[in-house]
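Re: the 399-residue chain
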Amino acid sequence: MSLRFAERMLGEKSNVVKEALKLTAQPDIISFAGGLPAPESFPINEIELASAKLFVEKGTSAVQYNCMEGLPALRNKIAERMTSCHNINCTADEIMITSGSQQGIDMSGRIFLNPGDYVVCESPTYTAAVTTYKNYQANFLAIDTDDEGMIIEDLAAKLATCPNAKLIYVIPNYQNPSGKTWSVERRKALLQYAEQYNIPIVEDNPYGELRYEGEELPSIKSMDTKGLVLYMGSFSKVLCPGFRVGYIISSPEIMDMLCQVKQSTDLQSSTFTQMVIFQYLTDNDIDKHILELRAIYKHKRDLMLGTMEKCFPKEAKFTYPHGGMFTWVELPKEIDTQELFPKAIAKKVAYIPGATFFPNGGVNNCLRMSYSSSSDEQIIKGITALGELFTEAVAALKK
């Protein structure tokens, strides 16, 4: 039987990341593929206490329907923290709770994109965002990047020739996949071009709290005076990813559209998980917890990059992230990391081939690796094995 799927689905191919992560689920594989938080970082005892307290104090309301925009008390907490800690002046009415920030990305596509419209993004960029926007039959205006973020000259030139640019998607802090952080000047310049062309910006910031060195840089949202920026935040990387609690901060005009979409998607995000997070925030010092997270991930980053410096061939270049969960590796252009991937699996190590992060393709010699969820022993063993593999691949080019 041949089912008649929607036309937008007919061009979908097997997802490389999905297939890679399926392989890495095998217990004997050392996985640097997924950006999973470290299991030892989860505040299990505190979450258990918050959950028990809910049933005693809130009873059935903890499992009842709640507001479409999200639990008012949690939205107030987020607004207070955004204003006091991150200079994003907002109220609870400008915040919507989402089922992870991934839902926020999807909702932005639903409210802004028509078939054939262009999404402006970094090259490379977050592959799940690319997949999401492709579902709305979008094209991509991929902007070249360097160590400071989008190259503004390339952005200006491409925007001038693309009247159908409808949405900008960026990850300015510890970007996925590259681990790079935008300079303040690039953030300001992007906002200026967004204002000039009246294009909304999706500022995705799931990793911003995981800063290991340097000062916090102002978000694009904190500089937004026109209401163009949709700021995506999440508790997944700092508390509990399985709760799937994220949030959007946006202008009232955009929030009205988001409410329409939220109603038709899932009515609301989970009442229970929102209440647990609110209770946790009330009873605990999340900033103290985040400092502990930073120490955990900084150690893992330093161990991975130090081992890479010892074991990788000199032809392999990689980023030195100041936060987040990823480093980005670039091998000689003649090496295809997708073709190399089965050999890595044979050595019981996994990464994500880099081609999937380029929305318009054409780059095959890169890969993304995450240090966040592996043990010290796994990092040393896995990087040593990849070093052998990459050294062999580089040597083969010289024959």
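The chain has a mean pLDDT of 94.
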